[in-house]
Amino acid sequence: MTWDNDIDVFHLNNDGEMTSGTGWVPSDGNLYYIKDDGSVAINWQIINDNWYYFYPNSDDNSHIEGSMAENTIINGDYINNDGKWIKDYTDEDEEYIGDGLTNKVTNGAAVTVTDDLDDDSESLFDKAKSDIRDFTMGAGYSVDNNMYYGITTHVAGMDSDTLPDSTACKAGKVVGDIASIAGGTAEVAAGAGMEGAGIVADGTGVAVVPGLALNASGAVVVVNGGVTVYRSTGNLANDTMSLISSDGGSKPTSKTFGQPIETTIGGKKVKLRVDAEPDGNKIQIQAGHGKDSTIDVRIDPTMPLEPQIPKNLNLSKGQKQDILKYLQKAVNFLKS
Questions:
Q1: Which of 6, 38, 70, 123 has its CA 20 to 30 A from that of 47?
Q2: pLDDT at residue 102, as a whole number
Q3: pTM for this one?
């Protein structure tokens, strides 16, 4: 297999003549595909209703340019021994991969990783962070909402409509209610102690003014604690019922994956993100929101991901790898 890098990749026979016609060509222990113009196919190609991947030129020469990939993973897309892309591949399909080890090819470099340490572990970590955030928001909202007065009033500054509708948040609200009941009870006890100290001071006859002040302050603290306990108890009942009736397996209507990726399109800087919507089984690469979206690329989760990323997004190699990683997470999210 020979080619002239200055013009394209072409297949030449033993006499140095360019092969005519199209189709599969075995050479050097690899398979190549000749296109209509006589050039050797590279990157993703659909042939006879099947997707194949042919290696482009790589800096480390780990693969021969134009050779067909087989029994590997290309940017999250799984390819079997026949070189065909496998739709809806799972880690349990060992016949395509081997004995529990996954050979990943990233930028032409082969990396061996175990299935247990694949992107799922990162997804679990992201989910844990999201649950902790939602739990904290729920607990903070309950404490803030239950307090009658004082420095904690509206510290969280959240409206109930802005809270995430997740099981973790609802559990946080329940814990916040319980903490508020404990805090309110402690306030009642402290206020009663203050009132008792005021009564003792009044009885001495020499500390009437301080005693009256303690009586008044204690009464205010008792009332505040009582109201906090009352409100917290009512909210605890409601929040507990909400937690019990929640569907822990429900998905959000939309989810964003990864961090925004900044690029320049048409002379303007934009921040791209990857969104997934379970209801419509839809994945998008977007910039902006709603009617103000400046970029809206629809990705078909049932097709190889890499060839669906438009070149006019002007992504660097690293940015494209990040987009592919986020897209694969979105696909896994829709499948879960």
A1: 6
A2: 36
A3: 0.42
